[in-house]
Amino acid sequence: MKPETIRIAKILGIAFSAAILAACASNGNSTDDRNSPISISGKGSAATGVNKYLWAASLETLDFMPIFTADPIGGLIITDWYAPAQNERLKANVYILDTSLRADALRVSVFKQNLTQSGWVDTPVNPATAREIENAILTRARQLRLNSIS
């Protein structure tokens, strides 16, 4: 296995372990909020967690790119450069801004560089690219939430 594949598998394992542990937690309340955040304090505050479905869906959607850093508490995923072609590379940042499963709780930024004789040069990215990634993440997050209800 490639080192980046192993690293992604470890990150996904940690994220899913955190989601499983959060699902097992009980605060004595019989109501079940299926849209609750992952939280280290157990209180579900926005300062300590993000929506678990958006988090898992973001990692799944970007699994083809090497993950540089992933912060499940702050809701930030930064990928390393991914080269779909020899003279081109892409990088993405995902920001989960809220504990709710809503479109405005997610922001994706995509960066592109092309290799020239002087080195890597920033190139404009079609704004639709980030929207398509956001839509893919939101669709997958909704699927994960529906699967958890069943």
UniProtKB/TrEMBL annotation:
Pfam families: DUF3576. Residues 1-25 form the signal peptide. Keywords: Signal. It comes from the Bacteria. This is DUF3576 domain-containing protein. It comes from Aquisalinus luteolus.
